[in-house]
From TrEMBL, chain A:
This is Peptide/nickel transport system permease protein. It holds the Pfam family BPD_transp_1. PROSITE patterns: ABC_TM1. Residues 107-296 form the ABC transmembrane type-1 domain. The keyword Signal does not apply. Belongs to the binding-protein-dependent transport system permease family. Its main location: membrane. The chain crosses the membrane at residues 44-66, 109-135, 156-181, 229-254, 274-296. SUPFAM superfamilies: MetI-like.
UniProtKB/TrEMBL annotation, chain B:
This is Peptide/nickel transport system substrate-binding protein. The keyword Glycosyltransferase does not apply. Residues 80-457 form the Solute-binding protein family domain. CDD domains: PBP2_NikA_DppA_OppA_like_7 (cd08512). The keyword DNA-binding does not apply. Transmembrane segments: none annotated. It comes from the Bacteria. Residues 1-30 form the signal peptide. Keywords: Signal. Gene3D superfamilies: Dipeptide-binding Protein, Domain 1, Dipeptide-binding Protein, Domain 3, Periplasmic binding protein-like II. It is found in: Periplasm. It comes from Neorhizobium huautlense. PROSITE patterns: TAT (PS51318). Its main location: periplasm.
Amino acid sequence: MSVVEQTPKPYSRDWLLSDRPTSRHQARLGRAYVIWRRFSENRLALVGLGIIILLLFVAAFANVLAPHNPVQGDLMNARLLPPGSPGYWLGTDDQGRDILSRLIHGSRLTLMVIVLVAVIAAPIGLIVGTVSGYAGGWIDAILMRITDIFLAFPKLVLALALVAALGPGIENAILAIAVTSWPPYARIARAETLTFRNSEFISAVKLMGASPFRIVLRHVMPLCLSSLIVRVTLDMAGIILTAAGLGFLGLGAQPPLPEWGAMIASGRRFILDQWWVAAMPGFAILIVSLGFNLLGDGLRDALDPKEAGQ
Amino acid sequence: MMNSLNRRVRILSAGAALALITLAAPQAFAATPADTLVEGFAIDDIITIDPGEAFELSTAEVTANSYSKLVGLDPADTSKVVGDLAESWTVSDDGMTYTFKLKPDLKFASGNPLTAEDVAFSFERAVKLDKSPAFLLTQFGLTGDNVTEKAKATDATTFTFTVDKAYAPSFVLNVLTATVASVVDKKVVMEHAKPMTPSAEYKYDTDFGNEWMKTGYAGSGPYKTMAWRANEAVIMEANPNYYGEKPKLKRVIYRHMKESSGQRLALENGDIDVARNLEPNDLKAIEGKDGLSSTSAPKGTIYYFSLNQKNENLAKPEVVEAMKYLVDYDAIGATLIKGIGEIHQTFLPKGQLGASDEKPYKLDVAKAKELLEKAGLKDGFSVTMDVRNTQPVTGIAESVQQTLAQAGIKLSIIPGDGKQTLTKYRARTHDIYIGQWGSDYFDPNSNAETFTVNPDNSDEGKSKTLAWRNAWDVPKELSDASKGALLEKDAAKRAAIYQDLQKKVAAVSPFVIVFQQTEVAGYSSKLKGYKLGPSFDTNFVHTVSKD
């Protein structure tokens, strides 16, 4: 008797969900599909994803989308117009600049801050955490005490001190936020590493003669990635808020850059009579932060089956 | 069951009552004390309250209310000078020697008698300390070596002052109304003096109490300064030994408040009695409210931005001229400074002798571009501007940033508090500085000198005028005209010289003058007699009373 195995059509649903993948490629795609299915079950996570995609779109096409020049206003004729004025959907600020155009161009700054901070802070945290977790001993002690020192400062205060020392400006603000946000990643990466370091597959790799460098880079780090991605995504809202806070205090982006936090700061003077100047960038920050939080939540559920049902 | 419900209701109602009480409390206790005047005022520019050193606008008001001078401006008619400590004075026939007779039985706040000896000491101290405002006195030929001869007490109530040229007497007397001529208590000051090691720069073995006086007080004005805490408050109390009309309120507090909207809210809630830095929109809102009033007075203060001539781009005459065409004067006048200032483009404020009202410049980007091309800067250049982060200067700086961008000039704004930007300005390390200039005394020479005289353009220059701060090597012709006007006794001729000078300075100087300030204050109608003076050292508070 022979069992006739029906091979599903490549890239079909069954092929992706097959529990006996015939190639690495199929296995990877299958896993991604499962994660996506789990992710897309969560409606709110999809909303978050939608917001982030919209943000990317707006930032990419800011030049086309913005109806006005974000840094050139019409002081004489268009100062402090309320939302809904012809040509100025969200009103204008105290220099006669279109708030909508400034928000659209400001999305680039926001995105730049998030991406750069993530690119700088996440790898540092990952390296410090995995090395410290895998090496143990005095390396672990030294690296973790350094992490403790950073964690002992309130994040915003440390960022403030750094920016004050480096001089105000958006680049320095990014640097300051990155320097203050890696320690939690290091902690997570270390905790994950500790759970793997004594497992069989690591021992097997060791027996095959892999160097500690290779083990950390090729076998430990990839396993830490998913929890790190979740944490970074969830932190992005915090990064946006910190950047906006620095901008608000005049230590982030400098005029005329349409950074959202700085826009709120300049609108604060008119908050009693012209609420929209401060409120509009506030809404923008709220929506984008919410988007990242929802996305992060969904990613956690999808990537981390342990916590999924909780 | 019933019982527990009752308990819950009780707790709930108690909680609600507590919430109501805390809600109502701020209104109940918000009013300022009946014997205290509380002003909301941006005082971040104060760096010292030593009258021998202070040269800032907010400090001028503090020292004016806490120190006395020989003579003061007549508040009713600022073209006249009236005696303050001095009962009378005479000028010798050659116009060089001034003899002041002090009022009898004068006393300092400390209780020490105030004699001509203290007056002479105050002059000596200011000249020897040689801080920013010392030039006001040294311009009369006083130096550290001869000051004890030129300004001396001949007896307990007679003070003689000898100048080096036959200046117009009104000019000399006007200068003596400036803060630097305030009389300090010799005994108190010298008790707190710190020994110094004489060096090439500072030749004396004492600091004349300068360090202590930065926050200390040794005066005889209607109020005594109890404390100055940077960026927080100035607290003054009535001086029982004041010889003039007794102050009506016991205490005056200047609370540091930066934001116009914050001041407006505090004023509406009764947390402060006077709001001093209201912006146009907040002023408008206050004018319509019951129980609040506003007052205004044109000030001898002009707002300008200046181009440091050490910067090679800014030193080009075409660039200097182009800058003057790159300010949207009309729009700024109609929006950012509406109600708090008027567009003004010459260095003498309206109201002073010879002030010109000409406005030769308006926004003209095409012309500016042409000039920049002539200067070889067709593609523009990058430059920084130091901006104190209060309005209206930040708003104007941003507006200028936009108009400069239209001609390809990339301006980056460096924000800072008053202290930071001023310190940088005085060290001549800025590119562009935006700020205000208030006349030191109500005489055209104050502005004419600072804008057009710069005898030594090196970094060590002694006369730290605005021309010096911007490293402007003033053409000799202009300096000479300015100095000549000083000796011209005929007022009409003097005015004509100044008018001509203003035209020439407007054309070539690295100063882009934007507007003249109208100072406004919103105040609670409970106050009686609240008035703003024509200058910053005539905003007196001792005549204010409260219902």
